[in-house]
Amino acid sequence: MGLRVSVLGQLTVTDGAGGVLPAGELPRRARQVLAVLAARHDRIQSKDALADAVWGEDLPGNHAGALEHYVSVIRRRLQPQGSPASWFIVTRSGGYLFDTSRAGLDLADLRNLLRKLDSLPPGDPRLPVHEQILELARELPFPEDPYADWAGPVRAEVSVAAVNALLKLAAAALAEDAARSLRLAQEAIELNPFLESSYQAAMAAAVAMGRPDDALRIFERCRQVLDSELGVAPSAELAQIKRAVLASRSVEIPLPAPQPVTAPVPVPVSPVVPTERFLGRVAEIRLMLEPETPPVVHIVGPSGSGKSAFLAELGRHAPGRIGIGAAGPAVGVLRLSWLRNALTGLEAKPEAIEAVERALPGQPLDQAALELIATTFDRPEQVYLAVDDARDLDAASVAELAWLSRHCPALRLVLAYDYPSQITGRPLAGLGTPVVLRLTPLTAEELEPLGDPGLRDLTGGIPALVAVARRPHEVASAVAMQIARRRTEWMPPLAWEVLRVTAVLGDLGATELAALTGQPVTDVLAAVDALVHACLLREGPNGQVGHASTLVRTAVGAQVSAATSLYLRKQLTAAS
């Protein structure tokens, strides 16, 4: 194949002779169009969907025409001698498609390797595949758009693949080359500083090298990261390893040979609820662990409320008994990618995973495949199948979940998405909503263990902001703006205007907001209700409302020019 596009790391395009083509000279929007199509390769993207990813709420007047222009620019710059028969960006069904049969794509190669890894029968060598995965996944994709909605899931996908490969290779190298094992584990820590298994692998390698002090320093780094960023302590398993290192050092006896890091073995859970290590959500976690948990539980909360972290925490309380898959990108050939990931997390039989892999796009799983998958949930204790970003599950996936729920008594479905109203009229509503747990902002009492009394006002108790509140301003501000945008994307434009005005002027009443925005009081009140429900505004005395988080207020206010701020203040004075 001649043309090759690389999106893992900086965008580069090379021709058949290895010559570098001027992809970096493309206009910013053209690079974004190319990146979105690469992220969703081999799937037709309608012009509306593509424009929504590229521009978000700032759509140009004629977005279809703008897309046609940028696609034309990409073709002229990267395939100047090309024709419709050779263009790798193909026009089809009123949209566009990145065709990997016409141009190589490193992201597609990585996904093919992941599928190959999942399909290998037991006993086949896997380390060479992990080496190939790591070679591709050392750099995350789309560095120009780290916070874009369309880029986030792909970056997470690549990060997970790289960390998993690093840990598998670290475990394999431990016995013969502990120094390499340590280097690989440290790379995994750099990619994901919140994953305890990376620290465990690094500690095991340090011990194998006869460096217990280094192992203790690795543990301390883990403790500090988890405490400062997430407000949790290291797991009992990691603390036990630390105690073993201390004991071996104090009595100067050799430690047992360290074992490679492996996936946790499923074990029955004690009826006693584990000690809480998660910040808040105590009642919700306990409800999920009760013996008679309802068969379907919905976990809802707007962007940044900690739904994914809640599912991960549930996994810590139910080791080996929860499989988590993200359904956001699950369309076309990837329709069941969430189920494959969940079954992998539950260490399902290879035949069950293969049944998912064999499923054809647009066709539901047949009875034999469902029965094979159901064996994964044939256990004496409760087992959880969690679907993150579940709102867009298609009708076939919902029907398959319903079948599994009916035929697997131990199975509990956990469905996470933003708002209950999102599933109205969607297939997911067919599973019913027997229990809906809403993840509200963390209270001052729940934040108290962090020892930062100003944290509640700074973050509004939004977990995603709590995690970055004391990080550099640029990081905290970018996350705050992302949360504000995501939480208002379903609201009318007036809601964003209310956020802007209150960011500049502080607490205001509905009458003042109506005068400043030029909108009827009834419309203003509807926008305020939505913003309060989204926990972006809080109600104060005398019916006034203001920002619930000073981080969000600062981030939104920074987008307002000095001239606009002065004009708003003059308007407020005139209206008083």
UniProtKB/TrEMBL annotation:
Q: Which PROSITE patterns match?
A: OMPR_PHOB
Q: Which Pfam families match?
A: AAA_16, BTAD, Trans_reg_C
Q: Which UniProt keywords apply?
A: DNA-binding, Transcription, Transcription regulation
Gene3D superfamilies named among the record's database cross-references: Tetratricopeptide repeat domain (1.25.40.10), Winged helix-like DNA-binding domain superfamily/Winged helix DNA-binding domain (1.10.10.10)
List each copy of the OmpR/PhoB-type domain by range: 1-100
Q: Which InterPro entries match?
A: AAA_16, AfsR-DnrI-RedD_regulator, BTAD, OmpR/PhoB-type_DNA-bd, P-loop_NTPase, Sig_transdc_resp-reg_C-effctor, TPR-like_helical_dom_sf, WH-like_DNA-bd_sf
Matching PANTHER family? TRANSCRIPTIONAL REGULATOR REDD, TRANSCRIPTIONAL REGULATOR REDD-RELATED
Protein name listed in UniProt: BTAD domain-containing putative transcriptional regulator
